[in-house]
Design brief:
mainly alpha; 19 helices; globular
Length: 484
């Protein structure tokens, strides 16, 4: 089949989703869950299977270690996908001519929901409720998970408003009552200081990046200018900088439990994501039924393989600290990619070439920042970490776009796409659905008894992650979505 015919098959009668972006988000959330299930202690895996700054066997944080591992990619990939989704979500509201106050309310509502989610998911985990979870603890965790459905599920618009509001109010009432009744070790009660930092950062990024995109949606250069100002603020707060009003702004917070200007550093990843989101939105709006492809199937496969090669080369080289060889090989790969991306014919090929150009920009910028701050690190995150991971995210997005949208192999990435469309269920489901069910049925004990080596421990973590993925896929295919 000619590639033009493949593209034509992608044009449905209804607006399509960017399935490649869903797959990127899906691999990020599932890899994030898997990283939390890796074995520690006696059965620790090789160091490259953990955060680079928390190596085995003791897993004690060492901020002087440079380099990144695959575990260090999952959070920036998710942040990048969050940024890329913003133009897709807000443009629909703008095109419906919604008033500005309503759009602003939507952005604020999203931030508030994520802030609540950050507090709630941390408070309801079995290990948080009790140092030694019992069957009763696991049942409470399952109840707490169930209460999230009436709060976050997107109900059909055909349902009467009073039904939708009634279900939501019941969910909120149940969740608040549960938090009020719960007692934690030391007879502690619910506290705003107990929250999930990953979701806290996502809440900040959802609000600030949405506002940035909304204000600069017609001026991409201005959006990049915001990063310049943010870079100046960050440099003014380096340990060698002189204290002053910039430092005071950096450290001031009216609500430290949910907001710190420090979190805005992740805009270095999210704003590049919004630029890619603009490009995806423009591509999705085009009529591609008459597209004529200039690239062969073998070239597409070569491009997809090259994108994955970028990720492997950078991970291995930066972790091993082979800086000169890694930089040179990266530049060679950039040259090969530029050659493969020549003579684009249709809109999809134009998109892929543009995405690749942006990937090159962020990768090269990040590699030049690599010596700064003592080498690339996730914690405390360095400038090179932000830019290189943004470039790597684009590379993976290009590979998924080719696989799903061009080669029409959606089934190969179906689990990732389903989870990418429902990431919040996956995030809460591992600690408050799958693990409690395994504990209550004694399957967790059986799985643990099979762990006799580091890699069987990895197999256990992979099995748990797959169970979560299948549960989320079940919800997605039955059109049960959580607002995120």
């Amino acid at each position: 089949m000619h590639l033009t015919e493949l593209h034509a098959e992608l044009i449905p009668t209804q607006p399509i989703r960017a399935a490649g972006l869903d797959a990127l988000r899906g691999i990020a959330i599932l890899a994030m869950l898997l990283s939390g299930q890796l074995p520690f202690g006696q059965y620790s895996l090789p160091a490259w299977m953990y955060h680079a700054q928390v190596p085995p066997p003791d897993h004690v944080f060492n901020g002087k270690l440079s380099g990144i591992t695959w575990v260090d990619l999952v959070f920036p990939f998710f942040l990048f996908a969050l940024g890329a989704a913003i133009p897709l979500a807000l443009t629909r509201r703008i095109e419906r001519c919604e008033p500005n106050w309503k759009i602003a309310g939507f952005i604020l509502e999203r931030g508030i929901l994520l802030a609540f989610f950050a507090l709630y998911v941390q408070a309801i985990r079995p290990g948080t409720i009790s140092e030694h979870p019992t069957a009763a603890t696991q049942l409470i965790a399952l109840l707490a998970f169930a209460l999230l459905f009436p709060i976050f599920t997107r109900f059909p618009g055909a349902w009467p408003r009073y039904v939708r509001w009634g279900i939501r109010l019941a969910g909120w009432a149940g969740a608040i009552a549960l938090l009020a009744l719960l007692r934690y070790p030391g007879d502690e009660r619910f506290s705003l200081t107990r929250s999930d930092i990953i979701i806290v950062v996502l809440a900040n990024m959802a609000v600030f990046s949405s506002l940035c995109w909304w204000a600069t949606r017609n001026n991409r250069l201005l959006r990049l200018g915001i990063l310049g100002v943010l870079l100046a603020v960050r440099l003014s707060n380096m340990p060698t900088a002189t204290p002053g009003w910039v430092h005071d702004l950096w450290t001031w917070s009216p609500a430290p439990w949910i907001y710190q200007l420090y979190y805005c550093q992740y805009l270095f990843i999210v704003i590049p994501g919004t630029i890619v989101g603009d490009m995806l939105l423009d591509w999705m709006k085009r009529d591609r039924t008459k597209d004529k492809s200039n690239w062969s199937r073998s070239r597409y496969i070569g491009i997809a393989g090259l994108m994955l090669a970028f990720v492997v080369v950078l991970l291995v080289g930066l972790y091993a600290r082979w800086l000169w060889p890694t930089t040179l090989v990266t530049f060679v790969l950039c040259g090969i990619g530029a050659r493969l991306m020549q003579d684009p014919g249709d809109d999809t090929e134009q998109l892929l070439r543009s995405l690749f150009h942006w990937a090159i920009y962020w990768l090269v910028l990040g590699m030049f920042f690599e010596p700064y701050e003592g080498g690339m690190r996730k914690d405390r995150a360095t400038m090179s970490y932000y830019f290189v991971t943004a470039g790597m995210a684009i590379c993976v997005l290009v590979a998924f776009t080719i696989l799903v949208d061009v080669m029409q192999r959606r089934r190969w990435a179906a689990l990732l796409i389903d989870n990418g469309q429902n990431p919040m269920i996956a995030y809460a489901g591992i600690n408050n659905l799958v693990l409690p069910l395994l504990a209550l049925t004694s399957l967790e004990t059986r799985l643990s008894s099979m762990v006799t080596s580091p890699w069987t421990g990895f197999a256990k973590g992979l099995a748990i992650t797959l169970l979560v993925g299948m549960a989320v896929s079940f919800c997605t295919r039955r059109r049960i979505f959580w607002r995120s």
